[in-house]
Amino acid sequence: MDNPLQLSLQTFRKGSYIIVEGKQKADYFYIIRNGKVRLSKEVEIVEEVGGNVLSPGDFFGVVSTMSSHSHIETAQALTDCALITVHREQYGLLIERNAPVAMKIIQQFSQKMRFLDEALTQITFKTTATDDISHLFKVAEYYARQSQYNQAYYAYHQYIKYAPGGENINTAKERMAKIKPYAKVVYLDGDENNFTRSYPKDTMIFSESQPGQELYIIQKGSVKITKIVNDNEQLLALLKPGDIFGEMSLLENKPRSASAIAHDETVLMAVNNANFNRMVASQPQIISKLTQLLSERIWFIYKQLANTQLTDPLGRLYDALLIQLEKLRVPVGTQAYTFDFGPQELINLVGLSKDEGNVLIRKLFENSKVKVLNNKIHLTSTEEVEKQAKYYRKMERIDKSRKKGSINNF
C-alpha cells in the first residue's frame, strides 16, 4: 500500500509573519496557493532572483527546511494567504507524485546558486565570474606555472577544443607538447557510453569555463572544487562519497563555474540530461539528495554574503568560524573543536589580503581560547566564538542604526 502524501493548507492574515530569520528547526516549507508573500533579510545584499514578492505557485522556506539549518529569511503575508505546507520527510513523496514541482525547485535553486556565487565572487575577490571560453587558457597557464601538469594539460586541451580560433591556440599546443610526458589525464573528451568513471588522484574532472552537460555522484574517493581568482587557486569545497556536483551546467546548459579535481583515487557516476529526467520520476531519493545539497550550498553562501557586510575584519573572522560551526552542525558550548583548515584558509575564506589577514590572525590568536594545533585552527571553547561573533554583529547593528539616525536628522 502506497504511503499517502500528507499536505496541509494553512491560512495567514495580512501582515502575519510566517517564518522568521534565525529561527531554528525549520521543518516545513510552503507553496503559495493564494495571496502574496514578501521575503526580507536582516542583511539584504542582493535581491532575490525574480524579486522579493512571491505569488501563487511560488515557494519559500525550502533552503532552511531541506538543509536542516536555521531560516535565512523572514516571510510576511502581504495579503490574506493560503499556503500548502510540506514537511521535510514528505519531499520524496512530493517528487514521486508531482515531478514538475521538484523540477521547478531545482531549476530555481540552480539559477539562484549561480547568481549568488557571482555576487560573492565580485564582493569577496573584487572580480567577476567569467563564462569566456578564453579563461580556459588562463586556468591552464596557472597550473603550468605551479608544475601541476595534469590540470594544465587538461585545461589546454579544452581550450584548443572549444576555442580553435583563439589568439593563444599555438602557444597552448606548444605547451601541451612539452608537458605531455609529465601529465596524467583521463576522459579528455568525456565518454557518453560510460557512466561509471575512475579518476586517478590529482586529475581534472572538468575545468571552470568549460561547457558541461553532466552532473556527477561520487561513488568512491573525494573531489576538490576550486576556482582561479586573481591568479590564486581558491578551495571552495572538498566533497565525499554520496555528494553531487556539476549540476548547474547540466540544469542551465552554461559553462562550469569552478573546476573539479580528484583529491584521491575517485570513482564517479556521470548523469546526463536524458538520465537525469528519468531519475526525477524513477529515483526520487537522488533528486531529494540534490535538493538538500543545493539547499546547503545556498544557505552557506547567504551566510558568506552577510559576512562580507561586517565592517570590522576581526569580527568577520569570528563570524566565519561561527558559520563553519553551524554548517558542520557542531554543538556550541564549552567543548573544544579543531577545524580541518588553518589560518591561511580562514584568510582566503573571508577574502582578505595576505598582509591584512596575517595582522588580523595575530589579533585573533590574542584570544587564549583560539589556537593553532598542527596548522589547524583549534577552539578550546566553541561558545567563545559564538559570543564574539554575536558581539560584532550587535556592534554592526548599533553602528548602522546610529548612522541611519544621523542621516534622518540631517
Automatic annotation (TrEMBL):
Put simply, this protein is called Cyclic nucleotide-binding domain-containing protein
Q: Which CDD domains match?
A: CAP_ED
Please tell me the species this chain comes from: Candidatus Thalassospirochaeta sargassi
Please name the InterPro entries in this protein's record: cNMP-bd_CS (IPR018488), cNMP-bd_dom (IPR000595), cNMP-bd_dom_sf (IPR018490), Env_Response_Regulators (IPR050397), RmlC-like_jellyroll (IPR014710)
- Lineage start: Bacteria, Pseudomonadati, Spirochaetota, Spirochaetia, Spirochaetales
Source species, domain of life: Bacteria
SMART domains in the cross-refs:
cNMP (SM00100)
Q: What GO terms are given for molecular function?
A: DNA-binding transcription factor activity
Where is each Cyclic nucleotide-binding domain found? Answer: 19-112, 197-297
Any one GO CC term of this protein is: cytosol
Which Gene3D superfamilies did the record assign?
A: Jelly Rolls
